[in-house]
């Protein structure tokens, strides 16, 4: 192992030691028993406290600030594992053997080639689109690549006719009589059957691998198109983390950047029934396919109350501008009852363990990065101010999004890429949870309390007053 990467491991392990020391007195885990349906629970607005299913994938203990993937503490996974291993763990339930890891990595590499998807994506104005909207579009195009029979050599008769005569356009194609019409109809049926078969395939683990690898290639392609470069093909000799950075920057990262990116990916891979995971699961529960489910996850992650907070944090730090502005800025924000980006969490009522790892990583990187160092100073001062005002009373602490942006910025990554990078990693969690839920699927269908009126008399439009 590279010497500097050993230093990174030490930072993770000291964050673990601090977390254990500070939270040992907190209550033991809750919500860890098998469910006997129907279950009784107290539900708050926004489904707070609602239990929707059982899972063996991951556990968040909000009081202690613990995050567990398949029984393993997040700190140990960050210290000793890689994103490929963690993605395998989330999907398949155990850490891979060397042989299984090798074949999993090969699969991911194979699926990181998405030339047709990239070609299709480039027919849209990607450089003008919100990158998360482009990423979501890209996953739909990946689905097309997996299911489109034209990709397997199917060419419709109409297309053949048109391309046989370069000057012809569809309206000029002479009708060929009933026989031909029936033939075209039959072949359309054939084609639909073939798409259906591919879609059945598109709900299995193969599609999970395709998405885990492909969304990374998509995010990198979107980044490059935005900055006026052609997308790059993956570098098959690199790890997932290094290849991701290579496909964005066109430069193989150094071992420290690779290691830090790997840890960032591990930290973001799964997190209970958060809004984007739930969105993916809701879509999958209708027996829609996993590409559309992951697309819904991306859509939900984009919002600033969820994954979009990482970009919002950097914009907030820019707005604050300097350490001396923190106090007046925070006073104003608190007076206006503003939500401070990167703070608070529905489940954690303790320090988010992911922020415990990301803060020292941000500090490590910002030693050689002036802008990162400036952001970090402001962030530390803001954390102190928020802690004094809100930690004790409301149990508000920094969440995963508070320091991740400083880590990304210090690695030269632009703010509009922060949330897509979060999505790249979370595909592992979304797909694992969808696959798990589908084994005992029941369509999600809560109810709302109707507070409207009854018995209104229908009035024709011309008799309605303002
Ligand atoms: N800043 C100031 N006060 C806050 C914050 C915050 N960031 N978060 C919560 N509070 C306060 C609320 O005002 C509320 O106070 P009140 O009881 O006096 O009304 C109390 O804490 C509870 O807050 P809720 O809004 O009920 O918490 P909820 O669980 O609904 O929301 C959320 C959680 C969305 C994360 C919220 O804390 C927030 O908006 N944070 C800022 C955005 C953010 O960082 N999101 C990323 C979360 S991590 C992730 O999704 C990857």
Fold and architecture overview:
By secondary structure, this protein is an all-alpha fold. The chain has a domain at 309-410: Cytochrome p450-Terp, domain 2 (Orthogonal Bundle), CATH 1.10.230. Helices cover 59% and strands 2% of the residues. The protein has 19 helices and three strands. It has helices spanning 3-23, 74-80, 83-92, 98-111, 115-121, 131-147, 157-164, 177-201, 205-226, 240-249, 255-267, 275-285, 290-301, 309-320, 323-335, 353-366, 370-394, 400-410, 418-439; strands spanning 58-61, 66-69, 72-73. A three-stranded antiparallel sheet has the order 1-2-3. A hairpin with a 4-residue loop joins strand 1 and strand 2 (66-69). Helix 11 (255-267) crosses helix 19 and helix 12 packs across helix 19. The radius of gyration is 25 Å and the shape is globular. The model is unreliable at 161-193 (pLDDT under 50). The site of acetyl coenzyme *A has 20 residues, from helix 17 and helix 18.
Characteristic terms for this protein:
single chain; 466 residues; mainly alpha; Cytochrome p450-Terp, domain 2; 3-stranded antiparallel sheet; 19 helices; 59% helix; binds acetyl coenzyme *A
